Records
---
Amino acid sequence: QKEVEQNSGPLSVPEGAIASLNCTYSDRGSQSFFWYRQYSGKSPELIMSIYSNGDKEDGRFTAQLNKASQYVSLLIRDSQPSDSATYLCALVDLYSSASKIIFGSGTRLSIRP
Amino acid sequence: GAVVSQHPSRVICKSGTSVKIECRSLDFQATTMFWYRQFPKQSLMLMATSNEGSKATYEQGVEKDKFLINHASLTLSTLTVTSAHPEDSSFYICSAETSGADTQYFGPGTRLTVL
């Protein structure tokens, strides 16, 4: 079983709508979670980090964490064509002494005009 | 803040040659740096973790004699791909974090093409 699961997509969302990206993880003890955005041919860019249950908002982005259900989600409001990218869910490997990050395989998001 | 650079951004080399990639943290001291490899349409795969002044820790299946990592200072780590072959062609990305933090900041990546 993969440690971080994401639907590979592509997820197609009309411009201006809300894009909802989901991620589940297998290790119940995980504490630190991240969403990265990766444009084609570029390296990942950190969008949000979340550590506590509930919602965390930053501009058009809202991360949601539910540790009981072991899922993390990212909502993008007022989606723009520039949001089209692959979104990587990640968490810190509990069993690593060096804060290794485990990445999901990513969800491709396409915002259609 | 938290800017990480990589050099070169793109390199093409002949099979059998060695290529060195530099990763620098520009505005912070990076106690730990990570090296990833990403093949087309796949996610990032961690190759190794390097701590300043000590030997790198390699992930299972990564040849330490082929991928030489040096973390000589708190702002610089290098990855040398020795005797490169076409199957080593990939996107190599480094990341860095500071002591006590668990957020990694990524460099822009180096695209290696081995002919």
---
Amino acid sequence: DIQMTQSPSSLSASVGDRVTITCRASQGISNHLAWFQQKPGKAPKSLIYAASSLHSGVPSKFSGSGSGTDFTLTISSLQPEDFATYYCQQYNSYPPTFGQGTRLEIK
Amino acid sequence: EVQLVESGGGLVQPGGSLRLSCAASGFTLSSYWMSWVRQAPGKGLEWVANIKEDGSEKYYVDSVKGRFTISRDNAENSLYLQMNSLRVEDTAVYYCARDVGVATTSDYWGQGTLVTVSS
């Protein structure tokens, strides 16, 4: 199985900050990488697929980049509703696998 | 509006069985691959299984192969997960999700249903 490693595991930031989360795959996955946001007690929300394509309705403050093994999720101008846990997922090969998550907290 | 509503979760003893259902609305179920993804308490996300639009292809994570069966009834707009020989480690919130095209990633998720396996 492909291992997905996110860094950092947790991150403290302030409202208005710009943050970047990194996701690394244990082998090349082309651009078959997705990002999800999850708030406590809620279902995940899909943000990005194909490494950089935003799902319908996702604000442009979220952006993704990367290809191969290294990927990033950037969130600009953090707002209170952005503080959540973020997961990456590879879907290049079965089984699809997720990173361990990055918890974004208010500083 | 796309909606996915899971049901069927509950408390079951190790070795027992449970059938989860997911009612889909707001889109044509027969046009989409569908997945089940789970999340153990306080842990991350784990993909469990998915099924092709017509049910002709199914894939599973190794840890549930031979115990879980994914199925669908497009006429009833429903997705199912039959879970047999349940183990304590199957305890999780189970989400159904609509897949993006032929990719094994999802765009819409249900609210989840909790399965607790305990004696």
